[in-house]
Amino acid sequence: MPVPCRESRQNVIGTLPLAFLRRGPFIWNLITRAPDRVVAAVLAQPSGSRPKARELFYETNMKGWGPDLVKRRPDITMEMVDKFLTKMYRTNPDFVFPVTRDFVGNCQIPVLILPEIFLRIHMRLPWRLRC
What percent of the chain has pLDDT over 90? Predict the structure, then answer.
């Protein structure tokens, strides 16, 4: 098995992305777009869709993140923000963003998912027991 090397990209065999919280959707996008480049992935406290709060992420980002982004980036409009958030949070609001439950169930790439409760328990362990 080749060893990754900073000087030469010829030996790089793949990537193992790690994502916390709302960065999880980017991992799923990476897996869908370049599955041959991802050897495994770790999602810690991944965000997903709940039936009782389907619009939560969309509405929160349209009120907070979107307007702030448009103020900082004059080349971006609220219409663009709406289009991005709609694709991200409303297209497949089944399970996790932005893929379907079937995609996750059939994913052949090893994905370690660390739910919030696991991290809370782990963080309470004495320092000497942490890995």
Answer: 20
